């Protein structure tokens, strides 16, 4: 009943709800594990496959350190995406176009806060523990309709590994990113997260 009330308040956007205190204690503990994992991961590289709003597929290399994300697309053609410091910059090598976006209303902005604290400006809408898996969904607390991000993890022997992202933006466009061949503990220099330029 309590969760139904919180969801109702979120849908109305009339209640001041943030964080994850609305969740049962066992789910709160899982959210705390996710916070610790994302804030303490030294660096992560992986291969990715992305499905965009138009059901188009793309693939490439994923790099992450707390506060920054980089996607180097190989398919369908070379492109770069770098997110951090409140903005996202995307460069298409095919035509040399560069797109600048604010992360304020983009679900990826919820992943590149640093330090990540699921409280205050972030609302945890759901936490689900499965067999060897965990997923946590988050939104902007003051305006959840601006977008939703679901973080997907493998959870084996008490150790988390980020394996996927699913998002819905303010225009209800959906995307998913599936990771494979993850390498954690990489010492990734911050220079790799320099925004693309013309």
From TrEMBL:
This is Outer membrane lipoprotein carrier protein LolA. The keyword Amino-acid biosynthesis does not apply. PROSITE patterns: PROKAR_LIPOPROTEIN. Gene3D superfamilies: Lipoprotein localisation LolA/LolB/LppX. It comes from Swingsia samuiensis. InterPro entries: LolA/LolB/LppX (IPR029046), OM_lipoprot_carrier_LolA-like (IPR004564). Coiled coil: none annotated. CDD domains: LolA (cd16325). It holds the Pfam family LolA. Keywords: Lipoprotein, Signal. It comes from the Bacteria.
């Amino acid at each position: 009943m309590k969760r139904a009330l919180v969801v109702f308040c979120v849908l109305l956007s009339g209640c001041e709800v943030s964080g994850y205190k609305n969740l049962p204690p066992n789910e709160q503990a899982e959210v705390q594990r996710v916070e610790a994992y994302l804030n303490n991961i030294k660096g992560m590289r992986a291969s990715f496959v992305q499905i965009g709003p138009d059901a188009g597929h793309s693939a490439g290399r994923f790099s992450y350190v707390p506060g920054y994300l980089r996607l180097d697309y190989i398919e369908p053609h070379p492109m770069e995406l770098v997110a951090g410091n409140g903005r996202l910059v995307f460069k298409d090598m095919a035509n040399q176009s560069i797109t600048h976006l604010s992360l304020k209303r983009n679900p990826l902005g919820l992943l590149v806060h640093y330090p990540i604290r699921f409280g205050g400006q972030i609302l945890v809408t759901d936490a689900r523990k499965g067999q060897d898996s965990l997923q946590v969904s988050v939104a902007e607390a003051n305006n959840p309709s601006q977008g939703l991000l679901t973080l997907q993890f493998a959870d084996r022997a008490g150790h988390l590994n980020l394996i996927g992202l699913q998002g819905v933006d303010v225009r209800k466009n959906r995307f998913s990113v599936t990771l494979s061949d993850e390498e954690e503990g990489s010492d990734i220099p911050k220079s790799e997260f320099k925004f693309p330029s013309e």
